[in-house]
TrEMBL record:
Belongs to the NAD(P)H dehydrogenase (quinone) family. The lineage of its organism: Bacteria, Pseudomonadati, Pseudomonadota, Betaproteobacteria, Burkholderiales. It comes from Acidovorax soli. The keyword Oxidoreductase applies. Keywords: Oxidoreductase. GO terms for cellular component: cytosol. One of its GO terms (molecular function) is NAD(P)H dehydrogenase (quinone) activity. It comes from the Bacteria. This is Putative NADPH-quinone reductase. Residues 4-187 form the Flavodoxin-like fold domain.
Length: 204
């Protein structure tokens, strides 16, 4: 059976480097025989604000209902997004707030601080661009955005392993280097689409 991969573009702009990398990853995975679906968050219609937190009801818009179905369908989730101010864009954070809800992504046990991880059985890959050099993000700012996404969000919901690939600095990269990153994304897609695990990295 083909690997089921969901590619999620977390950059609001559909003409961004991240968009190109998401397309390349999807193409590489499909060429390797995977079934691929894609979510471009900039094209979805939803309120990114969880107005009452987890203490009130906020009906899911149709696009978010479909997003939950796509996540359920997927065996491997690929998140492609930039680092802005040390973490993910507000659009992506709002999407996560609205979609990874109690009862869907996790569930606290009655009278306990423990929880059930309802999205277990899936893996994830993060393709993350940044204007700072990856070494600076790792050693100077201690990778807050990577830890948030990997440990506080995905692994909290049972998604593991989570592989992180960092690309930067974007601001000073020439066209040849940008294209190399796009081709790197294509190779990663082909690798995972063919069920060969990509190497684990937090600052590659």
């Amino acid at each position: 059976m083909a690997q089921r991969i969901l590619v999620i573009l977390g950059h609001p702009a559909l003409n961004s480097l991240c968009a190109g990398m998401a397309t390349a990853y999807a193409e590489g995975a499909q060429a390797a025989g995977a079934e691929v679906r894609r979510l471009d968050l900039g094209s979805l219609h939803f309120d990114p604000v969880l107005h009452a937190g987890h203490y009130g009801e906020q009906p899911l818009e149709p696009d978010l209902q479909q997003a939950q179905a796509d996540i359920r369908w997927a065996e491997h989730l690929v998140w492609v997004y930039p680092i802005w101010w040390g973490a993910m864009p507000a659009l992506l954070k709002g999407f996560i707030d609205r979609v990874l809800l109690p009862g869907y992504a996790f569930k606290y046990r009655q009278g306990s601080s423990l929880w059930d991880k309802l999205l277990a059985g899936r893996s994830a890959e993060l393709l993350v661009t940044m204007d700072s050099p990856p070494w600076y993000f790792r050693f100077m700012t201690r990778m807050p955005g990577h830890h948030q996404m990997k440990k506080a969000i995905l692994e909290f919901c049972g998604i593991r392993p989570v592989t992180v690939h960092s690309f930067g600095p974007v601001r000073t990269a020439d066209a040849q280097r940008l294209q190399a990153w796009v081709e790197r994304a294509r190779a990663l897609g082909a690798r995972h689409g063919g069920r060969v695990p990509a190497e684990v990295s937090t600052a590659s």
